[in-house]
Amino acid sequence: MIGWEVEVYTATEGTDATVELCAIIREGELTFELPAINIGTEDGSAVSGSDYSGPANPSSFVFSDSAPFRQCTTVTIEDDQVFEDLVEDFFVTLTETSSTPRVTVQPDRARVTITDADSKYYYCV
Fold it and tell me: Does residue 61 contact residue 36 with C-beta atoms inside 8 Å?
């Protein structure tokens, strides 16, 4: 079984803010060809291109005997300087490739929450 190491990640919007997400082989001895897993994103209340970008390379994880059983990618949190909801979210997904040997991917979705540094609720006057 392969899945996200953590199911919920958090970040605060700001200059050079990033989130590192890691997938791991969770259990079982894999004696067959190890899989390649695609990485994607799904918008929640946060929108790709304005609230976050990525994931950075790689756009897939390839697990093998010579590659680590824990692999990571990075998503950049954009500082849009717009007053928005205090917390926004989006999801990073793992899916099997068409050439992937049959493997269970779970959890296949990680939630990333972003605290808006520009929110009127963020600063106390």
Answer: yes
